[in-house]
Design goal:
By secondary structure, the chain is an all-alpha fold. 75% of the residues lie in helices and 0% in strands. It contains 10 helices and no strands. The chain has helices at residues 6-39, 47-71, 78-89, 99-110, 115-143, 153-175, 182-207, 214-229, 240-249, 255-282. Helix 9 (240-249) packs antiparallel against helix 10 (255-282).
Length: 285
């Protein structure tokens, strides 16, 4: 028996989307002057390419969710899967860290996907996403030691991260031993890696750094994303992600330029999420 009726689910989803839109709108209105000032410090020619990178990154992440559905014979079509992913992303901007998961589950149920199947797919997708960011973060730790971490300690800490990730993956695989297949893992992981390459490239463009710094920028952003994902008190890890990125950049980038680039990166991503969500909301498909 369903916990909520279709009408109640529709009402809850509408309230959830409206609250996310209002929260984002209020945040943008309060900080619009600061963002405009920061944008003035970034070369105008890089804004469009950075925005294109963020759009493409969101597309790759939505493709990962769609491929998981298709691999489980629950393919509702790309547009409907994309719409479910994009609308659910607004839940990230509500404190708690789980609203996007609940929203996606409800949207999957509306697509005719069973509750248990939807929960499994969302869990696997979340674990794979965090796994990719953990791998990239471990690579950053191996390359650059934060303050207080010696050269000898870096491999140990990175090894601890990777060992935990491998053990968790084995437990997950054992849990779904009759259901999870390599195809359900490899394709989403590659898509997530591509998305973080684009997230990192957007940040690199805003920083005005050379392409040789791209691997480091990708790893720095992934480490910030991973840390922000566990900061359930902060909507979408706002503040936490940026703080980690700024700390990881350290002395490699002028502090003022790094701050402007990181904050502008966040606001461009918010703008992307809002525009895509508006398109998805206006075109049910």
């Amino acid at each position: 028996m369903a916990l909520l009726s279709p009408r109640q689910r529709t009402l809850l989803r509408s309230l959830w989307l409206i609250s996310a839109f209002l929260g984002l709108g209020w945040y943008g209105a309060v900080h619009i002057d600061g963002v405009a000032a920061m944008a003035g410090r970034v070369e105008a020619g890089v804004l469009a390419p950075a925005l294109a990178c963020l759009l493409a990154a969101r597309l790759l992440m939505s493709l990962a969710g769609w491929r998981l559905l298709a691999a489980n014979d629950a393919d509702p079509g790309f547009w409907r899967a994309w719409r479910a992913y994009i609308l659910s992303q607004l839940g990230r901007y509500i404190p708690g860290g789980f609203w996007q998961l609940l929203g996606r589950h409800a949207l999957y149920r509306d697509l005719g996907i069973g509750g248990q199947t939807a929960a499994r797919l969302i869990l696997v997708e979340t674990v794979l996403l965090l796994g990719v960011t953990a791998l990239l973060g471990a690579g950053l730790l191996l390359r650059f030691a934060p303050d207080g971490v010696s050269w000898a300690e870096r491999p140990l800490l990175a090894g601890l991260i990777l060992t935990t990730l491998v053990l968790f993956t084995l437990v997950l695989w054992r849990w779904f031993d009759t259901w999870l297949t390599p195809r359900m893992v490899i394709v989403p992981v590659l898509l997530f890696l591509g998305a973080f390459c684009l997230f990192g490239l957007a940040l690199l463009l805003l920083l005005g750094a050379d392409l040789g710094s791209l691997p480091t920028t990708i790893q720095v952003y992934a480490a910030g994303f991973l840390t922000g994902s566990f900061a359930v008190f902060a909507p979408s890890g706002i503040g936490v992600r940026e703080g980690v990125v700024l700390a990881a950049l350290g002395n490699r980038t002028p502090a003022e330029a790094a701050f402007a680039a990181v904050i502008l990166h966040r606001f461009l991503l918010i703008a992307v999420d809002l525009v895509l969500a508006a398109i998805a909301w206006l075109r049910p498909g």
